[in-house]
Specification:
seven-stranded antiparallel sheet, 7 helices, Papain-like_cys_pep_sf, Bac_transglu_N, Transglutaminase family protein, Transglutaminase-like
Length: about 290
């Protein structure tokens, strides 16, 4: 169990004046079996004329706001207090053989099983390709328990792919990531999702934060943390289990979940429509601060 204070600052600076804008933010940590969100406070400058919270289709808490005063910059600061829990130890070898999952969830009458079906379908960033299936079958051999194979893929991506923020952009296709074996957490998560969905295994995209530690003897720099992404794999009876291919592990108490969806398009931290502005500069600062319990 661990307590965290998370501060997420986003600032857009515009070349020209923005007349007004409408925005949607996925920055409110979820309350789930993994964590409890006790408090979230949002500050927007300039002050919105209209703002509200609601649940989206996937169950995420979404903050909607409109700024109608002309402005040259937009700043959104979200401060949250979260308590995460240690993951329950489960025997991965007891999870269902991967070949059986598709038929089990289609024959089931349980809500959890039926709701997982949509996480098999293609989505905005994830299309079906034979090469993804071939990659998946390196790990998902006949009769292997789904969570065992998923962890093997997670470890493989971590060990053989290079983390390189300059290698990709938000629109880099998954096949390029697979061929060049370079990218960031979003890329590795999309690749893993595409591979598992190619085998008809429900897999969803998870966004959030990860506590990072400075090098030995160095002080942690303010704003040095970042948003993070990983995947969640579904198995009947067991439910969802989260894997981080960027770090080669099942998530632990230092992970904080903000939103889940089919891919990045469903859970982008901040997106919207603006009128005017021209070119812009974006600055993001994240602090994940562990607090005494």
């Amino acid at each position: 169990m661990a307590d965290f204070k998370v501060i997420h600052k986003t600032k857009y600076s515009y070349e020209d004046t923005v007349a007004y804008c409408h925005n949607m933010a996925h920055m409110y940590p979820l309350t789930s079996s993994h964590q409890d969100c006790f408090r979230t406070h949002v500050t927007v400058n300039p002050k919105p004329v209209v703002s509200s919270f609601r649940r989206d289709y996937f169950g995420n808490q979404v903050f909607l706001f409109s700024v109608e005063d002309p402005h040259r910059s937009l700043e959104v600061i979200v401060e949250s207090t979260v308590r995460t829990h240690q993951s329950l130890g489960i025997d991965l070898s007891k999870s269902t053989p991967w070949e059986n999952i598709y038929s089990l969830i289609h024959e089931s009458t349980l809500d959890a099983d039926l709701l997982s079906i949509e996480y098999i379908q293609p989505s905005a960033f994830i299309a079906a390709k034979e090469s993804y299936s071939e990659f998946a079958r390196m790990f998902f051999t006949d009769g292997k328990p789904v969570f065992v194979a998923a962890l093997e893929m997670t470890t493989y991506i971590y060990q053989t792919f290079q983390y390189d923020p300059k290698a990709t952009s938000i629109n880099t296709p998954i096949y390029q990531v697979l061929n060049e074996r370079k990218g960031v957490c979003q890329d590795f998560s999309h690749l893993m999702i595409a591979a598992l969905r190619s085998l008809r295994i429900p897999t969803r995209y998870v966004s959030g934060y990860l506590e990072t530690l400075p090098p030995p003897g160095m002080q942690k720099l303010q704003g040095s943390d970042a948003t993070h992404a990983w995947v969640s794999v579904y198995c009947p009876i067991f439910g969802w289990l989260d894997f981080d291919p960027t770090n080669g592990k099942i998530i632990t108490e230092e992970y904080i979940i903000t939103a889940v969806g089919r891919d990045y398009a469903d859970v982008s931290p901040l997106k919207g429509i603006l009128f005017g502005g021209g070119k812009h500069k974006l600055k993001v600062e994240v602090d994940v601060i562990r607090e005494p319990i």
